[in-house]
Amino acid sequence: MEIAVTVAPAFARSEPRRTVEQFVQSIVMDLPTANCWTLAEALGHPAPSRLQQILARAAPQAFHRKRLSPI
Q1: Cα–Cα distance for residue pair 25/64, rounded to 1 Å
Q2: pLDDT tens track for 27-64
Q3: SS3 32
Q4: Which helix (H) or strand (E) holds 49?
Q5: Cβ(13)–Cβ(21) under 8 Å?
Q6: Whole-number Å distance between alpha carbons of 48 and 67
Q7: Which of 22, 34, 43, 67 is 20 to 30 A distant from 52 in Cα terms?
Q8: How far apart are CA 64 and CA 47, in angstroms?
């Protein structure tokens, strides 16, 4: 996915990069509702904590660190 490729350099570790890629994939899925719980379930995660971590902490820090424009 183009968006995942664009933001990947902003994350030093592979786990956050994978989670961002999964998040991007999940938001384009045809789900009845799109919140962290339903997205996490669709991705096979046991809980939404990984996605919440990316949205709340990792992504804003990465954008600031690498000076990427928010999408």
Answers
A1: 23
A2: 888 999 889 999 999 999 999 999 998 888 766 665 66
A3: coil
A4: helix 49-53
A5: no
A6: 27
A7: 67
A8: 27
